[in-house]
Amino acid sequence: MKISLYEHVRHVLFEQQYDADGNSVGTNELSRWSSCIPRVYKNRRGQDYNCFHIIKSKNRVELIADYYVGVDWLIPGEKYVHVAPKLNKYVIERFSDLSNKESDVEEHKYEDSEDARELETESNKVQVNYLRMLLDAMSDPIVARECTDLIKIEWHDPMIRIEQDDDSLTPFLVVQFLQLLRQIVRKGLKKSYYKVSENLSNRVKGKILVGQQVKHNILKNRLTKTYCEYQVFGEDNSENRFLKKVFQFAIAYISNHSSLFQGNEKLLEGITSYIRPAFEHIGDLEGENVLRQFKYNPFFKEYKDALRIGGYILKHFAYNISQATEKQAVDTPPFWIDMPRLFELYVYQKLLEANGRDTDKIKYQYSTYGNSLDILIKDGGNSIIIDAKYKLQYRSNLVHQDIRQVAGYARLNKVRKELEIDDDRNIDCLIIYPDFSGISLSKDIFAENSFRLDNLCELLSKTNLAAYYKVSKIGVKLPF
Fold first, then answer.
1. Residue 63 domain-assigned?
2. Does the residue 97 lie in any domain?
3. With helix as H, strand as E and coil as C, how does 127-185 read?
4. pTM as predicted
5. Does 361 map to a domain?
6. What digits encode the pLDDT tens for the residues 165-180?
7. Is 373 exposed, middle or buried (0-12, 13-18, 19+ CB in 10 A)?
8. Which of 25, 100, 141, 183 is the most interior residue, by most CB within 10 Å?
């Protein structure tokens, strides 16, 4: 049984009922739901980040979606939760109203009101185009290297049968793989020594394969032939053959399931057309266990991630390409996509793209004393500390907690030293959060040219929070 959720929305799993005599009904069901434990996506500095939340009370159990998109078991073999990358316009409007009240109480809880339930309809949903965000982020090789931990897949758990339209895992893996493969082709395919077996005429090269020689030549009285094995240096090695096989799976899947790629088919067609010529002279893969034999070269860093993602894709299709063309219900392992991390990388790519990919000025995940700043802009007197927040929930603090966090970064001596600030002036702080469906979360929304540092500094002066000094917040429009 599927329980469908959208980001930042809650669902009542069980509520205690009573019969006419006042006796409780469904006690066993309450006990079963109460025993559910949400999966932990990651643990950072001793704090668990759960994929979803289960709120338990004496007579009620509620399920609340968080910042992650995916599918997972609630009761193994019986009931699972599916969190789709959709948002409710009503929730966005509520967030806009509350976040603009800077002097209000810090915590705003999501209220499951009758009005909210009435507006929980498909016509009131907007779909976040997470594949376009991934395509944009991974189009830059610098950002692509940071995209290794965007997804968590539980291969050892029982598979979940879902409708194909609910499959977010396969399109995500296919897009990620194609972007990595494009980076590989742009740099040039890896060359290495690989073994070739061939039945040679009137000569010997390498070593003679005695068994094959007897079978193919001696028993057939081909006395001028010698079956040999020797090494060749080139691109037709096992790694490239493996990538070609996965590439064929990806093409078959895109052509047969174009509706799952959220209108990004033209972009993907351009990527596959760019990749295809590089693999025309690469042979077909023999044997599926070749993945275990690969040795990674630090010079070809993209290969490690591409081979890992490629292995996921083949494993998902059970190494059978016909499954990539079928249109039916699919079996998927439990998985979760880290949307906050994807949002950070999306903003980082836009900043790099607008500023000539200047990594000396734009530093991602600058770490100090156990803290990691999302983005640090090092530009003399125009230096900025940026914190990207993918937040629209009412159970957490909307503004004040985030401001304390980013203001704390500005007080770190290591950060001030990195920015070469030796006086008492304060560093500008900026919180960037998502804007959806044309609903403005801020009076000033990023335009394409606003990601340039000079325009960004000018925009900061217009978006200062009234209650804080040198702290601003700006919404960034996301594809939907």
1. yes
2. no
3. ECCHHHHHHHHHCCHHHHCCHHHCEEECCCCCCEEECHHHCCHHHHHHHHHHHHHHHHH
4. 0.83
5. yes
6. 888 899 999 999 999 9
7. buried
8. 183
